[in-house]
Specification:
Elements lengths: L1 H17 L4 H14 L6 H21 L2 H4 L2 H27 L10 H10 L5 H10 L6 H25 L17 H11 L3 H20 L4 H12 L4 H25 L6 H27 L4 H11 L4 H12 L6 H22 L1 H13 L13 E2 L5 E4 L3 H14 L3 E5 L2 H9 L4 E3 L7 H4 E2 L7 E4 L4 H13 L5 E6 L2 H10 L3 E4 H21 L7
Parallel strand pairs: 1-5, 2-3, 2-6, 3-4, 6-7, 7-8
Length: 532
């Protein structure tokens, strides 16, 4: 079975890639195809899926800013959206029950409310996967979207505990003591060093958090998230997240396959899933309006709403619980699974074109903005700048220091991570919070664009670098545009979009390393200067 589903997932993922779609669309279709030919979930695929989700939550915890979860634009939007969505879907379900529509006939108010509640959640796995692919986890809208997902997960924990009539163990209060274990975990990470031992250490922390929470009758997935939060802040946490990335991505293939392996569709369940697909778009639109009401800019509201415009695997958990208790018929579970799969299949290509969609809808969406702005969304001051560097990671920081030797304080760096920005400012660099892919960047940027001679794009995401080049050319930027790439084919794509210079960073690093070594060798081989 393992070889069969791996092979099918690879083939469909490859086809999706060749058609210009994210591979996860192929994995979802592969799951539906396997279901249609009679395959079923087995223990190995289920275990793989579980570990994939737990690793995902652990890596989210490594990057999570707890302060962002407590912000009013996070919990306020989450609770308002859940109430409105539950009421709207529950009302529609009751109306269809009154009309005796198949599946809905005989549905009463508590059952209708349960359906609406189950479908009010968004998928943590899907949304974070999209954010990671765009390297936007630490952006303003990315932090808000993840905060919403965390609050939803907390609501889910409370619901499951109440529905089972099973309260957490009294010993669960002792989990607060995990904060005191933070120095121990940080020392543990330091002992792990690099390579495979660090990876194994990450697995141990994630799965250890799961086991600890399950031991006190708490949701194990929440334990993986908390373990990541406790381990966060150590210099190795970023390296650990990257080291686990490949394993997490492979294991999550099982999750996307499992979505399609829930049950065979029927006429009524296909009709239900198709109707819910339309409502997924309305969910995203409601998020957009609510985020705008809570003072986010139109772009951030649109991007966050698009990431959350889907259904959650939690809907399947609620569906299974409702079927088990006799509240809903078994076909509802299949309908929820199809709606989940369809929302992913539609949402992946939609999010892949998000930059272009916002560019086309920008004027309409900006009409939703409120005059007041969150601190992270206010105009960006860069007066007197001649060089702009977007992406202040290792490459961008090195470039900043070199360019500053020539241009002085007229060099300005930009990054989407507020902590990185603060760290650079503390070290005396002129660095501000902004994104090069922001279609409104020139309107937010307080700078004379005719004075800008050079823009360096050193972001870790090829999609972001490529989109930034397109955006700059669309704004008729007259200066030089230089961009970095990790692979040779990305260099060609950047040049095709209008970059004046595109550099394969690993190749350039190798050449620079060799030049420095040869220069040092020449100095050692040169005869000593003659005595005066």
């Amino acid at each position: 079975m393992e070889l069969q589903w791996i092979g099918v997932a690879f083939v469909f993922g490859l086809i999706a890639r060749r058609l210009g779609q994210p591979p996860l669309v192929g994995y979802l279709v592969a799951g539906l195809a396997l279901e249609l030919v009679g395959f079923r979930m087995d223990a190995s695929l289920e275990e793989l899926t579980t570990i994939g989700v737990q690793l995902l939550l652990f890596t989210i915890g490594l990057k999570l800013d707890l302060a962002s979860v407590a912000r009013r634009e996070v919990w306020g939007v989450t609770l308002a959206h859940m109430v409105l969505t539950t009421a709207a879907l529950g009302g529609v379900a009751l109306a269809l029950a009154a009309l005796e529509v198949p599946l809905f006939a005989g549905l009463e108010a508590p059952q209708a409310a349960l359906v609406g509640f189950a479908l009010s959640f968004s998928s943590t796995v899907f949304a974070v996967k999209l954010l990671e692919e765009r390297d936007d986890v630490r952006s303003v809208y990315g932090r808000v979207a993840i905060g919403v997902l965390v609050v939803q997960d907390l609501v889910a924990v409370v619901f499951l505990a109440a529905s089972d009539g099973k309260l957490p163990s009294p010993f669960a209060l002792g989990l607060v003591g995990l904060v005191l274990a933070r120095p121990v975990l940080h020392r543990f990470l330091r002992w792990c060093g690099h390579g495979e031992l660090l990876v194994l250490g990450g697995f141990a922390l994630a799965l250890g958090g799961v086991s600890l929470f399950e031991l006190v009758d708490m949701k194990g997935d929440l334990g993986a998230l908390v373990a990541g939060v406790v381990a966060a802040g150590h210099p190795k946490s970023t390296e650990l997240a990257k080291s686990l990335g490949g394993f997490k991505d492979v294991f999550l293939v099982g999750f996307f396959l499992s979505v399609g392996l829930t049950g065979l569709p029927t006429g009524p369940t296909l009709a239900l899933a198709s109707g819910l697909l339309l409502f997924a778009l309305l969910k995203g639109a409601l998020f957009l309006r609510l985020f705008a009401r809570f003072d986010l800019r139109a772009r951030s509201s649109f991007f966050a709403g698009a990431a959350l415009a889907n259904y959650s695997e939690f809907g399947l958990i609620v569906g299974a619980l409702a079927v088990q208790k006799g509240w809903l018929g078994s076909e509802w579970l299949v309908g929820f699974a199809l709606a989940l799969a369809f929302s992913f299949i539609l949402g992946a290509p939609f999010n892949a074109r998000l930059y272009h969609l916002y560019d086309r809808l920008r004027d309409r969406l900006r009409a939703l903005e409120r005059p007041h702005r969150l601190p992270d969304e206010r105009p960006v001051q860069a007066r007197g700048a001649k060089v702009l560097i977007f992406g202040m990671g290792r490459i961008g920081t090195a470039a900043y220091d070199v360019v500053k030797e020539r241009y002085g304080d007229t060099v300005v760096g930009f990054d989407i991570d507020a902590k990185h920005v603060a760290a650079h400012q503390a070290q005396g660099r002129r660095c501000v919070l902004a994104s090069a892919t922001d279609a409104d960047i020139w309107e937010r940027l307080e700078v004379d664009r005719d004075d800008i001679e050079l823009v360096l794009l050193a972001m870790s995401s090829h999609v972001e670098n490529r989109t930034a080049v397109e955006q700059l050319r669309k704004e008729h930027f007259p200066g030089l545009i230089a961009a970095t790439a990790r692979f040779p084919d990305e260099v060609d794509a950047l040049r095709a979009r209008g970059a004046d210079l595109a550099v394969h960073v690993m190749a350039e690093a190798g050449m620079g390393f060799a030049r420095d070594a040869l220069e040092r060798l020449d100095r050692r081989s040169a005869p000593p200067p003659a005595p005066a």
